[in-house]
Every structure is written in C-alpha cells, then in structure tokens.
Amino acid sequence: MAKKALLVGINDYRGINDLKGCLNDVTNIRHILKTYFGFTNEDIRVLTNDRASKKNILYRLNWIVDKAKPHDFLVFHFSGHGSQIRDRDGDELRDHMDELICPWDMNWDDGFIIDDDLNNIFKKLPENVHLEIFLDCCHSGTGTRNISLGRPAELGPENPALYRYLPPPYDIMCRFEGEEDELKATRRFKLKNANRLNHVLWAGCMDRQTSADAYINGFYNGAFTYYFCKHVRESGGNINRAKLLKRIRNSLQFNLFSQIPQLECDNAFKNISVLLPKK
Description:
Blueprint: E1 3-9, H1 22-36, E2 44-48, H2 54-65, E3 73-79, E4 82-86, E5 97-101, E6 113-114, H3 115-122, E7 130-136, E8 162-163, H4 170-173, E9 198-203, E10 212-216, E11 219-222, H5 223-234, H6 241-254, E12 262-265, H7 267-270
Parallel strand pairs: 1-2, 1-3, 3-7, 7-9
Antiparallel strand pairs: 4-5, 5-6, 8-10, 9-12, 10-11
C-alpha cells in the first residue's frame, strides 16, 4: 500500500488579507502523519505561501493521484482562505454555489480552485483507493457573520482570531443579486464523483460558519487542525473518526469557538481508526 500526502498552508497571500496559523497547521499535520501513520518524508509534499500557487497545487494534486492503485492511501490537507462563487455550469442543484479554496495567487477571474476542479482530479482514482481530505478554511457565503469567541484563557486579548473566509468582491456578488430566496442552505465541499472511492472529508466548520485562525497556547493555529492533532496525539493515533470528531467539537465548544467541524464519509469509516483505510 503506497502512501502520498499533499499539505498546503498559506499565511502570506498575494493581494488579499494574510493569515497567521496555516504554516503551523502544515507542521502539525506532517508530524502526525510521520509519527502515527507511517508516512515518510518522501511520501509527503508541502506547499506554503508563494509556492502554493494555483498551478503548483493542481500539479501536486495530480501527483498524489498519478499511478495510484487500489488500497493506496492519499491525504490532502489545505489550510488557508476559502470562499464561494455563483455556480456557472448548473451542477449545484441545491445551493447554486461552487465552494472554492484560495491559492497564494488568488484572484477573482480564474485564480481559485473550485470543488469541480477537485472532483475532476479525484475522479481519476481507481476503485478502493483511500482518500482523506482536510479543509481548514471557510466555505460559507455569510463571511460577515459575527462569531463571538469570548475570552478563553488560552486566547490572549491582544491576539484576536482571524477568519478564513474571503468574501467575493462586489462585481462577483452582483451575479446573484436578488436571488437570495432561491439560494438554499449552503453546504461543504462534496466529492460528486466519489461514489467509487473510499473517501473521507473533514471540514473545519459547518455551512455558514467561519474557521478560526486562532492564538492558542502561544502560537497561531487553525483551531480545527490544532484540536485534531491534539486528540490524535493524546490517543496515540488509536481513536476512531466518530470519537475524534466528538472530542474536537467538545474542545472547540469548551474554548468558546462557535465553529462545528464536519465529517463526511460512509458510516463504515466512522468506527475505523482515524487516518486508516477501512479494513
């Protein structure tokens, strides 16, 4: 069983507001993969800041998919800004929106990666390849929502949390002006062609929520990634996904974060140890 992982973290964006915890997320996840799940340096590719361009991310995504065989284990972790745009090709029947992740060279012409782009890459995988995706970014059309974090002890008041949602500019928003009544509740990224795959998708927050870039224990981190890694370490990697999700949610709630991480996978995977394929 071959293993491949692509880890993307962007703090320093070109032309849009920066974040602070994404590089720490990459470091954290890389340590988890190597320490508990048997990944080697050669198995993992990392793209950060200006190296995490749209071109490079798509190239590396194709690298983890290329030559994949049944029972291989693939991981994609993205830490950065996320957003939504109006669906142009009619495949988003529920909410009429395409979710997107923002590369370093993000622009609103064609400088983003939408869920359709990910689907077009991952649908090339053969059956029985295990794919685990982590998106510690926002996928909501309500980025101005005021989420009160309070003042938990581990968050210093001089280090406010940032949010990983990039609102579209006015001309992009005008494309669906007046259609709000038709736009039902939004949803997270979905792998529309994943019925043939053993796939697991972790999202840092619910629809219409933001993922926090938070100052925790002296450093900025993605709140979801931080508590994911924390509980994997505390369990020595021996914890199933359902229990892990519950512990992450409890930690976020205890520390007054409003985001509620989501887990999308077949029920058979929820009781399997995290980051391990179905037996």
